[in-house]
Specification:
The chain is mainly alpha-helical. The protein folds into three domains: 88 residues, no CATH class; 107 residues, Cytochrome Bc1 Complex, Chain D, domain 2 (Orthogonal Bundle), CATH 1.10.760.10; 97 residues, Cytochrome Bc1 Complex, Chain D, domain 2, CATH 1.10.760.10. It is built from 14 helices and four strands. A two-stranded antiparallel sheet has the order 1-2. The protein has a two-stranded antiparallel ribbon with strand order 3-4. Helix 5 packs across helix 13 and helix 7 runs antiparallel to helix 13. The two termini are 60 Å apart.
Length: 312
Amino acid sequence: MMTPGWSWYVIALVVINIVGCGWLLWWTAKRRPGDPKPEDTSHYWDDGDITEYNKPLPKWWINLFWITIVFSIGYLLYFPGLGAFAGVGGWTSSGQHAIQKAADNARLDETFAPYRGKSIDVLAQDPAARRLGRAIFNNTCATCHGSSAQGAVGYPNLTDDIWHWGGRPEQILATVMKGREGVMPEWGKVLTGLGGEHAVSDVVAYVRALPDPARLMQNNYGAARGKPLFEAVCASCHGVDGKGKQDLGAPDLTDDYWLYGSDSASLYATIAKGRHGSMPAHEQLLGETRARLVAAYVWSLSNSQATAAGAQ
């Protein structure tokens, strides 16, 4: 919001510039007694056939300058431009944006109308729907998940069959529309209090051994010490067997997919310091139909066989 002082300052600058332009135009166009005639000159070039005269601008050209000044005054009265003065036309950039947005939304609604309310697996079998879903994905989701949807550290790979919150069509749609909050609490101090200074490392050793339980008791003393700590602290979310719980977003620790890395240092940081992953809700941004299209595209990435079979 512009203060009155700044408003009057801007108005004064505008008025001074307009008046100055008018005065300069009038002053330079005026002929005075003693001025040389238009054909008089004292400027000659060396070859003698190029002469500079003192002829004024054509009248129509001068008039165009005056018309420009009058137009600028009318423009500043109709549109906001004089400080805090809103203009008699009532135009605002936000209002213009709202009008343009409404027109664009109407065109989008017409484009997406054939796909409204259709289930994700049905949309995934429609090549046109997948193309639209991919375009929406590239504009909205690729920033985090990448244009190939294979993710990065902290951002899930959407092309495999591993889903922390569930990979069924309705679960993917819920993720897109409502968002997800994946929180891994800090357990460093708790584990140290329960198992001593090496407790976090012991839990790391146990977690790293989960994919191959037969190795747990084969001279893996760290894993053996970490097992009861895991069952006491971690099993409530990840399960006693480490298979995870999709309703909580707790990942399966027995597969070979690790969102933040599987090396000992990454696991130690995850357990000791915690993690917080946020998937924003896109319902308000995209609307239901566009959310369905992008969810269908994402579902098709890990269900290519079902998509191809349904399209036949």
